[in-house]
Amino acid sequence: MGKNNTRFLMQFAVLAIVLSAAIMVKEATSIPVCNIDTNDLEKCRPAVTGNNPPPPGPDCCAVARAANLQCLCPYKPYLSTVGIDPSRVRPLLANCGLNSPSCF
């Protein structure tokens, strides 16, 4: 693996750890990623976890509408580290009336 690939993977590993910590600690300072404050991810958690998730609520759809969805593509492989099932993202976006970027 090249030096650039290793650096890239390390950066994403650090981001995944930071996002996980921010989500687990309710009082954590929100970190903006792709126009989403990490604390706002909790509004969508029910719709992207579990075997039979409920449809996203209006608060979740508001977060999804504000997000830069194309910007999230490089993070897709790391979503499961913060408790998000990547296969549930496309249905969530569809339920919110949004088009998914090609990566999802």
From TrEMBL:
Keywords: Signal. Residues 17-101 form the Bifunctional inhibitor/plant lipid transfer protein/seed storage helical domain. Pfam families: LTP_2 (PF14368). The keyword tRNA-binding does not apply. It comes from the Eukaryota. This is Protease inhibitor/seed storage/lipid transfer protein family protein. It comes from Arabidopsis lyrata subsp. lyrata. GO terms for molecular function: fatty acid binding. Residues 1-28 form the signal peptide. GO terms for biological process: systemic acquired resistance.
